[in-house]
TrEMBL record:
The lineage of its organism: Bacteria, Pseudomonadati, Pseudomonadota, Alphaproteobacteria, Hyphomicrobiales. Coiled coil: none annotated. The keyword Oxidoreductase applies. It comes from Nitratireductor aestuarii. Pfam families: Aldedh. InterPro entries: Ald_DH/histidinol_DH, Ald_DH_C, Ald_DH_CS_CYS, Ald_DH_CS_GLU, Ald_DH_N, Aldehyde_DH_dom. The keyword Ribosomal protein does not apply. This is Aldehyde dehydrogenase.
Amino acid sequence: MTVHQNFIGGQWTNATETADNINPSNTREIVGVYARGSRQDAEAAIAAAKEAFKSWSRSSVQLRHDILLKVSTEILARREELGRLLAREEGKTLPESIGEVVRAGQIFDFFAGETLRLSGEKLPSVRPGVEVDITREPVGVVGLITPWNFPIAIPAWKIAPALAYGNCVVFKPADLVPGSAWALADIIIRAGVPEGVFNLVMGRGSVVGDVLLNSRDVHAISFTGSVATGKKVAASSIEHMRKFQLEMGGKNPLVILDDADLDVAVECAANGAFFSTGQRCTASSRLIVTDKIHDAFVEALKVRMSKLVVDDAVKDGTHIGPVVDQNQLDQDLSYIAIGKDEGATLAWGGSLVQRETPGFYLEPTLFTDTTPEMRINREEIFGPVASVIRVEDYDEALALANDTEFGLATGICTTSLKHATHFKRNAEAGMVMVNLPTAGVDYHVPFGGRKGSSYGPREQGRYAAEFYTTVKTAYTLP
Ligand code: NAD
């Protein structure tokens, strides 16, 4: 099989090590063979980006616009093919995968436009005759480190603004999903980015990622992934006094009130908890349900779950693809065992399922009779596992929704304007959904959380400029 190489300093480069990209729907199938970069590769990429920054930071916004638009156009034109690749390497269903590819294309389109809209301010000075200009400049070399669960959308929402605002990029995708990253890199390179402006270094976090974290020449790091790795990014960034941005885990609540429309509530819960195999940082893993609707909701959700087909990600009719790999499956199964040991009732699922091909197939799983202190209600599982917590009323529901160290997304299902409004104002999370699943899907608005879920400025939309630019205040006496 051809080895998909890294792209460093304007060249596709051979790597001494390679890794097989395995299809989680069929572990006998190798999706492709990908380079695994060394420390020297990462260092070379940073040096190339540093050199390229001198001219790219001053390049015309028309050039940047045209490159980003070209990238968007090709991604959207190849949505089916790229979606199939994504589904085969990550395991989300084909419609979900194509949806993610489209989102990546739309993000590049959005930031193509943003290149032309970067504005500053001109203010009168307190000193007569003096003028003050406030402008935004690119930050420099940015290291982009991404997780496996959104193999093209998350890279897109970091790379597009980084390039749009004149930064040079060293992109390190997650080891499990190099396929979508490589395909995206290939599109960006062919769209005409000058040498050194964009570098792809696939490889291990402990090798390639570690070099990024410890380099004095990396001026900003945008990271999405686990809390444990996020803390390393934070510690090293403080050591180097560099900008950093973290998007990490979640333990997102979905509150269902007595006055909710039952069909809407069940759809929000099924989508939020189990779609994308529950492997979303925004997954609704705590279903907080008030007393009077509790039993009807649990029954209706079980009926809905009985209709969810778990199978090969690219097969027609599959609702839930496999878990991404053996490690994640082991983690999911261990939390299912913990839930049972803690005394929760296993109301649905919990078992592995066999399909035509060997894959990591797990039933969507629901626990009931759970309490807020249980580990299954406090720790991120990152699989198709949700638990129901029964509460008396809205006030208790809100208190429990906020009783978590995370704060990414939160949701409520209610027909009460009063409760919806109060919840939007008092939920301690970066994103709040009313009668909608907890996933944040719009590509032109900010994405991010509070507390242990996020650190630093928001990603996406116009808010991305906060991270990918730095402000300069200039005084002039003409
Ligand atoms: P992870 O932390 O294991 O890996 C994330 C990235 O960091 C990978 O590219 C990995 O190679 C790299 N990395 C690992 N060790 C490193 C090190 N020592 N130095 C530098 N880089 C290193 O996370 P994951 O398992 O890929 O992703 C799952 C996690 O991501 C979950 O916790 C999930 O909630 C979170 N996530 C958050 C968001 C969000 O926007 N908040 C979105 C998606 C996923």
